[in-house]
Amino acid sequence: MTVATTTTPFVVLAGASGPGRSTALKELREAHQGRTPVALIDGEETQFDRPPPRRPAESWSPAYQALLVIAEQFAQRIAFPRLASGLLAVAAGAEAERVLRLCGRATGRLAGLIAERGPVAEAIVEAVVEGAAEGLSPSCRRLRRGAVWYRDYPNARGNPMRGLTLLSGHFRADGNARTHAERYLVRALLADLDAHRAGRRQPVVLIDNVQETAGRRLMESVLRDRAEGITDHVVFYAALRGEGHPALRNAARRTTLPELMGGRGGTWAPGSTPSSYAMLVALPS
Fold it and tell me: Which domain of life is it from (predicted)?
């Protein structure tokens, strides 16, 4: 990702009742499938409510699950080494095989190495950084390159292993520290998508029921980063139950859906607050 002014708003389709919002997102997915990478999640799905069985709550959150599910939908076409490294660190190796598939195939040996280390965050980080360095497969080498991205994590001092360890600690601390860590994981997802783009069509992420925790945390992270000048090249459409939300108090308001592909946001221009980087589109009742 680069530091610049973003050119597309985070579009939120709002409506008090009826299936129109969800239908609009599904139509957007159908319109983009086959032409550009697209992913759709629904914040009301039960998978975002609680951790999987036998998974410690401190190593899971609705935002974690949302990032994993979004990346999995893109994974046939796009690798996610930055995100996978971060997810492995915060989850202390839980679901290692599933997460490693975000980097491609042939990661079984590294998954075994991670399993041997046990659920200790520091040991998992070491396995990710050093185990992948052993050149087990192209996917593992890709993962190591993704782990290097965390050398820029706050207070990492240029050390990827320290950055991933700090990320894990912040995530497990809950509260504001977890919010900070989740925001960095969202940034990792977008960095992986940007790395793939390289002149291709902009990826599209669709979030239904964005008022629920999973979608809201993603939306707030993206808006805050964009407001701070950390831009990306991902197009977001979301659906919101209701006419508004505190996180969207300064959003531009429209009555028609804008065309965003190719960096076209119409006459829209953001202000200085995170919510001004969103556009609220009121759907007819």
Answer: Bacteria
**Tokens at residue 250, please?**
């300064």
Q: For 108, how many CA atoms within 13 A lie in the half-sphere containing its CB?
A: 1
pLDDT of residue 84: 93
Where in the chain are the domains? 1-36+201-285, 56-199
What is the per-residue burial (b if ≥16 Cβ within 10 Å, else e) of 192-210?
bbbbbbeeeebbbbbbbbb
Q: Predicted confidence band at 201 (pLDDT cuts at 50, 70, 90)?
A: confident
- Average pLDDT of 229-253? 92
> Would you call 197 helix, strand, or coil by DSSP?
helix
Distance between CA atoms of 168 and 156, rounded to whole angstroms? 12
Task: List, in sequence order, the alpha helices (H) in the chain.
Answer: 20-32, 62-74, 81-90, 96-100, 108-117, 121-126, 132-133, 138-148, 160-173, 175-197, 213-227
What radius of gyration, in Å, describes the C-alpha atoms of the chain?
Answer: 18
User: Rounded to whole angstroms, how far apart are CA atoms 250 and 237?
Assistant: 17
Residue 227 to residue 35: CA distance in whole angstroms: 29
List C-alpha distances in Å: 11 to 1, 96, 247, 277.
20, 33, 13, 9
Contact in structure between 136 and 109 (CB atoms under 8 Å): yes
Q: Is the pLDDT score of 3 beyond 50? A: no
Measured CA to CA in angstroms, residue 138 lies from 76, 110, 127, 154, 187 at distances of 16, 12, 16, 29, 24
Mean pLDDT of the chain: 86
